Amino acid sequence: MVIDIPRILKHALTPRWQVRRVFSATELAAIEAAIRDTERLHEGEIRFAVEGGLELPALLRGMTARQRAVEVFSRLRVWDTEHNSGVLIYLLLADRQVEIVADRGIHARVGAEAWQGICRRMEGAFREGRFAAGVVDGIREIGTLLARHFPPLGGNPNELPDRPEIL
């Protein structure tokens, strides 16, 4: 096993409170509003979770952003939707990596290539320092995909919280 000292230091220097420096309360509210607004257009459920850095044991195991996103998908119960249409946008701030994990119902219709494209566009916005705008744009893109594959059928309950989750 190779220990990635630069990555460990980067994660150690990106604690949870750093998330609040990147995303102000106003920006977090805008992300929540974007989720709420787009969910009116489809039967899907979107969650956004951001984490400053991983804990040392996870880093020593070589955990990737994708592996952590799958854990968070389960922990936040994004899979627990009536139509199997939950989508998690996960941002690992220390690595500046975005992962989208979609429930099997929507992933089968959309496919990995579409999710990867959205992730790369969001990461491009992050490189420009446009974190909140990148997240909102990603939410809107996902909303468009969900509206195409899971149009509203009426009586669309909000099954998952819309507020961003800071881990």
Question: Describe it for me?
Answer:
This protein has one domain: Roll (Diaminopimelate Epimerase, Chain A, domain 1). It is 53% helix and 13% strand. The protein is built from 8 helices and 4 strands; from the N terminus they run αααβααββαααβ. The chain has helices at 5-12, 16-22, 25-39, 56-60, 65-75, 104-110, 112-127, 131-149, and strands at 45-51, 86-92, 97-102, 165-166. It has a 4-stranded mixed sheet with strand order 3-2-1-4, with helices on both faces. The two termini are 27 Å apart.
Compile the SSE list and pairings.
Elements: H1 5-12, H2 16-22, H3 25-39, E1 45-51, H4 56-60, H5 65-75, E2 86-92, E3 97-102, H6 104-110, H7 112-127, H8 131-149, E4 165-166
Parallel strand pairs: 1-2, 1-4
Antiparallel strand pairs: 2-3
Low-confidence stretches: none
The percentage of residues in β strands lies in 5-15%
Structural class computed from helices and strand pairing? alpha/beta
Shape: globular
What would the CATH topology be? Diaminopimelate Epimerase, Chain A, domain 1
Name given to the CATH architecture:
Roll
Q: CATH top level?
A: Alpha Beta
Please report the distance between the alpha carbons of the first and last residues: 27 Å
For the largest beta-sheet, the strand count, sense and barrel status come to: 4 strands, mixed
The total number of structural domains is 1
Order of helices and strands: HHHEHHEEHHHE
Helix content: 40-55%
